[in-house]
Write a structure and sequence with these properties.
Layout lengths: L22 E2 L5 H4 L9 H26 L5 E5 L2 E3 L1 H17 L4 E4 L19 H4 L15 E9 L1 H5 L7 E8 L2 E9 L14 E6 L3 E3 L2 E2 L8 E5 L5 H9 L4 E5 L2 H9 L5 E2 L8 H13 L5
Parallel strand pairs: 4-5, 11-12, 11-13
Antiparallel strand pairs: 1-10, 2-3, 5-6, 6-7, 7-8, 8-9
Length: about 300
């Protein structure tokens, strides 16, 4: 049940998302669903609050590995399938922190790591008080610890991380229930990294279905333009033929499933197209939950 290897086939969790509006995600929700609860927060909200704090810990680890200069790169299945020291340390941090706090969880991570003792410096025991201010959607308030599966991609966009394309990189923690992605946390360790001195580096986005998405500004793609975002490092003839058939005005090729979904939410692209096997549930769970949670605003 802990987070070692889990090469699970990568079907996505759910279906289409309604159209997006141009407004801050979460702003409209606060009057409707914000609550100062007298009782204990529902399990799902406590779990997401922990995921938020753990993702912020992961951001620090990712930045420290990069600044240290030794990325510890190894090839897994080939030159486009890499693992770094940051992948390994972040997965240990996320999985061990969650398992210690919630021992009945099922946690599945991308990296195939041996069982090992975990340095206490990697453990994050905090919970985001901001997340805990929000009431759990009623349909999820009954969920128990042993009914959740957590999908962890410790460093989505690893290849881009090794090439210095730091804005492509995300940390993904997704929460599924009964086979459906219902909540997620995405950390961008290098958000704003090109904004100059004084800019706040990194951000954490979180969302729950039927509650909303927080930590990001929702925008529509430019009107009258069809912009596709797609893979940078895992392309194929099928992927390219599909994109060509869609007659896009612009094609953006970037790394990371989390990064591409963020582009949709922020209006930088109008569709994410990847007509190929390859995505796993640790790639899709957190981004899909967050993308679907946007639709609560419609």
């Amino acid at each position: 049940r802990m987070c070692a290897a889990a090469r699970v086939a990568g079907e996505q969790f759910s279906s289409a998302v309604p159209g997006l509006g141009d407004q801050p995600i979460g702003g409209r929700l606060s009057g409707r669903l914000f609550s100062t609860m007298s009782g204990s927060p529902a399990f799902l909200m406590r779990l997401v609050a922990s995921g938020f704090s753990i993702a912020e810990k992961a951001q620090v680890i990712v930045q420290q590995v990069m600044s240290g200069g030794d990325l510890g790169v190894v090839e897994k299945t080939g030159a486009n399938d890499l693992q770094t020291k940051a992948d390994r340390l972040v997965q240990l941090s996320i999985c061990s922190s969650l398992a210690r706090k919630f021992p009945k969880l099922t946690i599945i991570g991308e990296e195939d790591l041996p069982l090992q003792d975990v340095d206490e410096d990697l453990i994050e025991s905090g919970q985001s008080e901001e997340v805990l201010k929000y009431s759990c959607p009623p349909q999820y308030s009954h969920i128990k610890e042993d009914e959740i599966v957590v999908w962890v991609d410790p460093l989505d966009g690893t290849k881009e991380y090794t090439e210095g394309l730091l804005d492509h990189v995300t940390v993904l923690i997704g929460f599924s229930y009964a086979g459906k992605a219902i909540a997620g946390v995405i950390n961008q360790p290098y958000y704003n990294y090109q904004a100059g001195a004084g800019a706040v580096l990194g951000r954490t986005i979180w969302g729950v279905l039927n509650l909303g998405v927080f930590g990001i500004q929702l925008k529509e793609a430019p009107e009258g333009k069809h912009i596709i975002t797609t893979t940078r490092s895992h392309s194929s003839k099928l992927v390219n033929d599909c994109i060509c058939a869609m007659k896009a005005d612009e094609v953006i090729r970037v790394g990371g499933a989390g990064n591409k979904v963020i582009q949709l939410i922020e209006g930088k692209a109008s569709a994410y197209v990847f007509a190929s096997p390859g995505c796993k549930k640790w790639d899709t769970c957190a981004p899909e939950a967050i993308l679907h949670a946007v639709s609560v605003l419609e």
